[in-house]
Amino acid sequence: MYRIGMFSKLGRVTIKTLRHYDEEGLLAPTYVDEENGYRYYTTDQLFRLNKIVALRQMGFSIPEIGDIVDGRNVSAILEMRKAELAAELEHAEDRLFRLENYMLEQKEGYCMQYQAVIKEIPACTVFAAEYVLPSYSSLMQVMPALDEKVSKANPGIQCVKPDYCFNVYLDGEYKERDVHVEICQAVTSRGKDGDGIVFKDLPAVTVASVLHKGDYATLGAAYAYAMQWVEQNGYRITGPVRESYIDGIWNKDSVSDWLTEIQVPVAKK
């Protein structure tokens, strides 16, 4: 038999680790001298120690290792860890892919006016109304009128904080005239449908988000970047793009200070 110090050297672990494994019930000494408290281990215990260390290196927790080495729920625990590692690998590959694209843009001297990020938009309740507008500029007249109409029909209706107002363009392509658009405003509760206005609950969605500063007339560049980024980074579009208005004519004096967020619903290919 070997005292704990020598056994730790044989097993290439620290004395502190062996004491911890003993406290957790993973690897108890074969013998403890009652007079001096010395702990003794046998070479046969190296097999169990190696198994514990191997499982630790695979990322299992101490309780999970206890179950595995004692033969409890082994298959379920192994399958769960496999799934966790697969998810970690997928996330790492995604980050690496995006980093490589970012480095390529830097190397080629690409102007980083825009940057895309993946974010989660929580579920929300919105009121919505569809319009066919003569031009995009007509939104500046339609949106305030819509808010006023909803407030009149639903006294006490409140917008969420921070405000979340967005448009969804339903034509499927860019159009200069006769623009089919759905205007949505997130609110804290449902109201009454009617007069072209509907309340609905939208599920949470994962989006590629791109911020645009400035005039709406130059939003095309942000859309182009967002679509290119989605394609180059291994995503696919899963729903209509949202155009969310953060700052605008209602709170900024200068058009150059308007802030719009392009939200492209996505999922990994």
Structure description:
The protein is an alpha+beta fold. Helices cover 38% and strands 26% of the residues. The chain contains seven helices and twelve strands. It has helices spanning 4-11, 15-23, 45-57, 62-69, 74-107, 139-153, 219-232; strands spanning 2-3, 31-32, 39-41, 116-121, 124-133, 165-169, 179-187, 198-202, 205-213, 235-237, 242-247, 259-268. The strands form two sheets. Strands 4, 5, 6, 7, 8, 9, 10, 11 and 12 form a nine-stranded antiparallel sheet that branches. Strands 1-3-2 form a three-stranded antiparallel sheet. The longest helix has 34 residues, at 74-107. The protein starts with a strand and ends with a strand. 19% of the residues are buried. The mean pLDDT is 90.
- Computed over alpha carbons, the radius of gyration is 30 Å
Helix-strand pattern: EHHEEHHHEEHEEEEHEEE
- Given as residue ranges, the uncertain stretches (5+ residues, pLDDT < 50) are none
User: Care to count the β-strands?
Assistant: 12
Overall helicity: 25-40%
Main β-sheet description: 9 strands, antiparallel
How much strand? Answer: 25-35%
Structural class: alpha+beta
Number of helices: 7
Task: Kindly report the average pLDDT value.
Answer: 90
Gap between N and C termini: 57 Å
Shape: elongated
Summarize the structure.
Helix content is 38%, strand content 26%.
Strands, helices and their partners?
Blueprint: E1 2-3, H1 4-11, H2 15-23, E2 31-32, E3 39-41, H3 45-57, H4 62-69, H5 74-107, E4 116-121, E5 124-133, H6 139-153, E6 165-169, E7 179-187, E8 198-202, E9 205-213, H7 219-232, E10 235-237, E11 242-247, E12 259-268
Antiparallel strand pairs: 1-3, 2-3, 4-9, 5-7, 5-8, 6-7, 6-11, 9-12, 10-12, 11-12
